[in-house]
Amino acid sequence: MAAGPVRLLARGALLLAAALAFLSCVEADGSRVNPLKKMLGAEVGVEQEREWGYEFDQEIAKKVTLIDDPIVVGFLNDLGQDIVRGIEPQPFIYRFRVILDPTLNAFAVPGGYVYIHSGTILAASSLEELAGVVGHEIGHVKGRHIARMQEKMAIPQLLANIVGMGAAVAAKNAGPAVAAQAVNVAMQLQFSREFEAEADDMGMTFMSRAGYDPHGMAHFFEKIAAEERPGAIEIPPYLYSHPALKDRIKAVETEAPTLRVHGTPPAELVGEMPEAQLRLTELIEAQRTSFPQSTVPVDRSAGDAVLAAADGRAVEGDFNGAIALLAAGEKAQPPDPRIPFREGELLEMTGRRSEAIAAYRRTLRLDPTRAQVLYKMGLACKANGERHRAVFYLEQAERRFGEKSELQKKAAREVEKLTFRVVTDAGLADGSDARTADTAAGFSREAFQASDSEAVWWAKVHARYYSGDLPKKMTVRWIDPSGAVHAETPVETRGRPDVIARLPIRLDGGIRPGVWTAEALFEGDVVDHRTFSIQARP
Predict the structure, then answer these.
(1) What is the residue-averaged pLDDT of the chain?
(2) DSSP letter string over 238-289?
(3) N-terminal to C-terminal alpha carbon distance within the chain
(4) Is 536 helix (H, G, I), strand (E, B) or coil?
(5) Total-model pTM
(6) Best CA proximity match to 79, nearest among 200, 210, 203
């Protein structure tokens, strides 16, 4: 019954302390903050939204059943990322989760976290209908509606809903379905009609840019409206936060014909949707969240011969020959996932990263559950600048590596670095210690003279990464006008959250006039990159 979650929401006030503890977050500079205070006047920043979303995502995973099958979730992620791609650059990494629940429901929280109920995926008759739901929720995130609600909504109502969210998460005795619906009702925060209309408009624009017919949004809304038939006992939770549905259907149908649809949906996604729906149905019937590794029989002896021959070529330095042998072997032995995986490794070694990603993808089509393959795929996507896909694969790998194993920790660390920027602000300064200076390293500068004593790179480091051993993990590479590395120096900590690195300027010390680059590295990753000039004379 729909009344259950509502009553739980009303009882949320009894768990105010739990909600506040859950929602108390850490700012980038390390200080703890009460988000309710921030909503009482101060602007909610992007970093705070990242923290809210991350903390909520960690908690909801403990209280509801999430489908983590890589084929089902991978399909939804590919659909979501296909829509997000058209609105880059984005400050958030978008995640798309599947909650095991038969109701027609979806919701989003700050920081790019979008949750779709399994019932919604199974009820969609077309890719456009599901794209309409996903696009609408992306609209809520992109519009930063929860952060803006401080301006649009009465504070007591907002507080009640947030307390309800904390109550739902803290309801340890609630079953997964009850907890899921309670969390949904609380998190949807009764968006105003203005925000709902804005999310509809943005969602239609986003999906049409990606090649999806925006009429699909109206078609799915009609499915939801049908659930509100006369005499129905249950109202889908989705309706709690999506008022005036008939008016919205009419608005979407009016607006959709005015939008230009750019191309068509990717053919592979169209083909993957029935497969994902069938697999989701089978998972529900089997009462599983994911299926084990592939059981397709493989002739390992034939694969062993191909791998041995390819490795022999690789040892001799003939990587192209090894790759060619593997490609031929893959055609002869298509069910063996080891062959495209090794092909991907060698392609990466030779700098053919996009081809390596394609090989890893073929591997995962044969066996989508191997943690090592998911991990390699995530790292390759990260190196290729595909941060959203990188996070998806690394999170999948993290779930499948052994509990507290080193590889699990590495995968989790990679996800953390992609989610939260290591450097939150940075620049160059003259190194002076004047109290009136605008940075911890003196006065800001972009150009230096040969007569200056030094150029100083400064940065503010996120609290998650600031520690006593930071100088062992973080360095600054100074690259001269020729492109050569002049020096690589460890950072100096200046008190949380500030760090600096110095470049002495002496013309007799190999300092060439021209355009220089300061490149900051943290655990081997470039986390800041900026240029400055050194002039020979004023």
Answers:
(1) 82
(2) GGGGS--HHHHHHHHHHHGGGSPP-S---HHHHHHHHHHHHHHHHHHHHT-S
(3) 77
(4) coil
(5) 0.81
(6) 210
